[in-house]
Amino acid sequence: MGWSQRILKDERTLQSLEFCLNMQYSAAIMASTKQRQSRPKKQEKKPAKKEKWNAPTSFLKGKTVLVTGGTGTFGRAFIKQLLTFSEVSKVIVFSRDELKQSELAAHYRTEPRLRFFIGDVRDAERLKLAFDGVDIVVHAAALKRVESVEYNPFEAIQTNIIGSKNVIDAALYKKVSKVLLISSDKAVEPINLYGATKMVAEKLFIAANVYAGKTGTACSVVRYGNVVGSRGSFVELIERQKETGVITVTHHHMTRFWIRVDHVMEFVFEALSLMQGGETFVPKIKNMPVIDVVKLLAPSCKIQVIGMRPGEKLHEILLTKYETKQTYELPRMFSIIPVGRKTTWLKDHSLVAEDFTYSSDNVQFLLSSDEAAEFFKI
């Protein structure tokens, strides 16, 4: 057989082999497709019903409650919730904004339990007058704008630190039973002045329990992340910038913890009911990259990165690695206890793991796409 005949024979053999392989491959694909088609469809899981969080309110029976910064976002929401409880005896709004007080008074003109007190937390004597006969104080008054505080540092010190000291002193003097500070995730390992002032305020409130003596005053702290829809919030900024077609963010990889106002209210009322003095309460909340929030709320808008502002963090933290050694896990929150302080009401709860990391870039606490759509009501 010549070389040309051998090549022809080899070509026919290869063609035959290729044909067989193609037939086998096609058969395998058909079998796989048939198997998938015959496989029973996986039933879609129905979304789990949101657990209703009913904070106990029996501790409010017959009580007079005062809120500093009562005309702010938190204050208005807190007052609205308080007035739904018939057991509350009186609600006092303490703030320095007379216009907002008049607007609030007009809104609640038929509510006989509501009182208004114009004053500044920098004024210690005014606080003592306001706290007369008060059972519970929620201290929400603060200068909060990060960039503004960076350029007006002593103003923030006077309000956020000295003002907090004045609140504590007045509460001890008037023997208020419970005093709760509204703090922020920016108080944890702070890099900006606002966070630093809040960290000092937290320290003052925890230390106040040592000086309370026989007054019976208990001082505690609540700490949480960005409130969706609050005045000056990032979500509010997105709504304002939508019309321009361009949304500004300061960094591509920035992340934040997010919490809704209704969740804040539930959390604060539960903290008020549980507190014995010295605890720092932190809610179980989730995080999401800032840029993903923009894509969710303004999908048709362009995103412009403008650079990080003075004092701005890339990621926020709600618990430091040092605090985890003193942090107990509850069903809906964490409770940090000062070193050396003995507690009895937490004896049935466990400490978190020593390597626990509660930061806004931890994917363990990331909102899923479905959760985010529900959370931001898309």
Explain this structure:
With 378 residues, the protein is of the alpha/beta class. It has one domain (61-375): NAD(P)-binding Rossmann-like Domain (Rossmann fold, 3-Layer(aba) Sandwich), CATH 3.40.50.720. The chain has helices at residues 3-38, 73-82, 98-107, 124-130, 146-151, 153-173, 193-211, 234-241, 261-274, 290-297, 369-375; strands spanning 64-68, 90-95, 114-118, 136-139, 178-182, 218-222, 226-227, 246-249, 255-259, 280-283, 286-289, 302-305, 317-319, 327-329, 333-336, 350-351, 358-359. Helix 7 (193-211) links the parallel strand 5 and strand 6. Helix 4 crosses helix 6 and helix 6 packs parallel to helix 7. The longest helix is centred in the N-terminal third of the chain and has 36 residues, at 3-38. It is globular. It starts with a helix and ends with a helix. Residues 6-11 and 17-49 have low confidence and may be disordered.
